[in-house]
Design brief:
alpha+beta
Amino acid sequence: MYKKGDKVIILDYNDKPLVPQVVGEIEDVYGPDRVRLIMPDGAGCLEFTNRFKKIDEKTYAKYHDAILQREKKLPIDLQLDIRKFASKHPRRRKDEIIKQFDLDKRYVSIINAYMGREMMYGKENINERFLFEYKEALYGIVETRTFFHELDDSIAIPELP
């Protein structure tokens, strides 16, 4: 149903657009019910497909500009060129580096999704399953960033809250 590059608007639990409106672009499709969105601040967000609907480019641009005006910083994805990074570290297998990078992207998506839901609905309204995924992602991102920190000192290791 959804494909890479689709522009979407996030819906609340009444299937109405959130106020203020939040838009994103689909980066990856993980299955019929889950996708990874790229949010206007460049962060990734893992989301269920029943929580947004497709919009046109004009509407996306309007809401995107409004978001950039009010958005605060969230944890961001590592911005690495995997091929160059892997060539600098020949002792590490390329597939190991790619696996850690993909895990890091997934953890950042979950953390950003949790933070967004916490801001929208409050901590008390987040279901147990998603809270478990969030806590798992917090520990996971420490592991992946530790892995990358060993290869490049400029990559910081986040502290657990």
